[in-house]
Amino acid sequence: MAAGKPLTATFVKNINRPGKYFDNSRYGLFLRIDKQGRKYWIQRIVISGKRREIGLGNFPLVTLSMAREQAVENKRKTYLGGDPLAEKRKAKMDTDFASVVEKYLEAKLAEFRSEKHKKQWNATLDTYAIPVIGNRAVETIDVTDIVSVLKPIWEEKTETASRLRGRIEKVLSWATVNELRIGDNPARWKGNLSEVLPKPSKVATVKHHPALAQSDTGRWWADLSSRDGISIKALQFAALTASGSGEIRGMTWDEVDFEAGHWTIPAARMKARRQHRVPLTPSMIVLLKELPRLEGSPYVFFGAKGGMLSDMALSSVMRKMHKADLAKCGPGYFDAKSGSPAVPHGLRSTFRDWAAEEGYDHHMAELALAHNVDSMVVRAYRRTDALERRRKMMVAWEKFLKKE
Predict the structure, then answer these.
(1) Residue 401 in contact with residue 221, Cβ under 8 Å?
(2) More exposed terminus of the chain, fewer Cβ within 10 Å: N or C?
(3) What is the mean pLDDT of residues 12-41?
């Protein structure tokens, strides 16, 4: 459409045909409509003797009157020797997705459970999102952009893709609250991406941690008990309590109540963000009381220089045990289903299978693993964590584990 009459708000709202629609002004303003029907405000302007085009935003986010005001302001800047395009590029550097991710991480640093968690959180964005939308201003990111990030890994790496989607959603929500963008969050799942991507549960293949076969528990425990070292003791305690490696490695002495006979893991250290009490059996208490204590270190199972044990410490013990058993022409310690060597986290699965076969209540076993049970309403009315009942169950599990 050639320059003619000035554009009107009604015309801009109703026109959908792809093309360029010039406003009849001296400021080079026109509306561009692409093949998808999206509308953009563009200004043609001479800067330092060269004709350039500057994007002024999308309609309806930027109205006709707003576009005209910005066009006048840009013209004023060039008249005074300024460069509105350079200013826009500089401003965009601060609001592109990659920069906003950094700002989000700085603002939310206290919410991360550990430095490792923060690195994992950031790594998925660096690997999959930043290469695709990193240089895009957050105000321009739409559903199409999010799909272009997620679709290549949605079926092959569903769990990673699902976490990535949630992290992008949080970054964009933070950007909205901080007035860096407006409108719906394009990374929202319900009623949004759920309409264009298959449900994660329909395409994901559940991957279980290789578990120690129940028939191998006695042999494995005897092998473990013949060894010495702080990592060995940590793995023993993990097996006895059916606790995760992270909870064990982060365990501090002030979390242990010997008199009451339980270990209380604070919500900040739990995946479900809820406090969890672990009943201590007589054998567990003996194990803890025999441990050396390092002055100045709060950790029960301390690592180098009194810090937390490495996240590979327990895994390394199990791997070495497996290889040593094979070297002695033993059968090793394999997962019966996958045929893979058992890992520390798999001990929780061994416990869960044992509890089911022994007929223990479903809720009791799930509580022992700190899993959510039933609906939020049911959990609200469940006033006890069945600590004493679980203590008896863990005594029975210990006897099975040691084949006593």
Answers:
(1) yes
(2) C
(3) 87
Show the tokens assigned to 225.
């008990």
Single out the residue of 47, 59, 55 nearest to residue 71, CA to CA: 55
Domain membership flag for residue 243: yes
What local confidence, expressed as pLDDT, does residue 378 receive? 38
The full DSSP string for 309-339 is PPTTHHHHHHHHHHHHHHHTT----B-TTT-
How far is it, in rounded angstroms, from Cα 181 to Cα 199? 28
- Is the pLDDT higher at 343 or at 89? 343
Residue 178 has pLDDT above 90, yes or no: no
Confidence label for 2 from pLDDT (cuts 50, 70 and 90): very low
Question: Cis peptide before 210, with omega less than 30 degrees from 0?
Answer: no
> Mind listing the pLDDT tens digit for each residue in 97-113?
998 998 888 888 767 76
DSSP per residue, 194-237? GGTS--HHHHPPP-PPP---GGGHHHHHHHHHT--SHHHHHHHH
Q: What is the 3-state secondary structure (H, E, C) of 270-284?
A: CCCCCCEEEECCHHH
Q: Is the pLDDT of residue 185 over 90?
A: yes
DSSP 8-class letter at 114:
S
Look at the chain and report how many structural domains it folds into.
Answer: 3
The token pair at 354 is 């044992």
For 153, residues 6+ apart whose C-beta sits below 8 A from its C-beta are 128, 160, 161, 164
Amino acid identity of residue 14, one-letter, is N
- Asked if the structure places residue 89 within a domain, the reply is no
35: domain range?
A: 9-82
Give pLDDT tens digits for 134-170: 988 888 899 999 999 999 888 888 888 898 999 999 9
Domain end, chosen from 22, 49, 82, is at 82
Instruction: Tell how many helices (H) and how many strands (E) occur in the chain.
Output: 18, 7
More confident residue, 34 or 253: 253
> Tell me, what's the pLDDT at 204?
57
Do residues 97 and 171 touch, judged by C-beta distance below 8 A? yes
Sheet with strand 262-265: strands edge to edge: 256-257, 262-265, 276-279
Question: Whose structure tokens read 């425990």?
Answer: 221
Q: Any idea which residue has 């203590």 for tokens?
A: 391
- 43 CA to centre of own chain: 41
